[in-house]
Amino acid sequence: MTVIFHSLQEANIGYKLNRTKVFLKELTYSSTQDVFSEVQSAVQACQQRIKNDDVARKREVSTAGFHKLTLIPNALRLPQVKMRPPISVGRLSKTCVGNL
Predict the structure, then answer these.
(1) Structural domains in the chain (count)
(2) Helix (H) or strand (E) holding 15
(3) Along the 100 residues of the chain, how does pLDDT read in single tens digits?
(4) Which of 27, 37, 52, 71 would you call most buried, defined as having the most Cβ atoms within 10 angstroms of its Cβ?
């Protein structure tokens, strides 16, 4: 991001750069003309491009694994496993033979 001020303006800018964001800590200026509208629209356009890139990247990541789903015709399956019965106080259940 580039912010250019004309010679008729005085500006003080403090910023922090991140991988996908620019944090403006301080932006003060004085000018005889209205230049803030242009800066605001430029910052909003930059934010919108970042959001669009994030949405496109998330869409690609979420759909990338689903296109290559292959089914194995005769897949090996686990044998049927009997689950242990619920615990009952004072009684011993003998109906289940293969407790895990």
Answers:
(1) 1
(2) strand 10-17
(3) 555 555 555 555 555 555 566 666 666 666 677 767 777 788 888 888 888 988 888 887 776 555 566 677 766 666 665 666 666 555 555 555 554 4
(4) 27
* Helices marked H in 8-76: 36-64
Give SS3 for 100: coil
Question: Could you give the CA distance from residue 21 to residue 41 in angstroms, rounded to a whole number?
Answer: 16
Euclidean distance between CA atoms 72 and 51, whole angstroms: 39
pTM of the model: 0.35
Which candidate, 27, 30, 32, 33, places its Cα nearest to that of 12? 27
Which of 61, 2, 85 is closest to 93 using CA atoms?
85
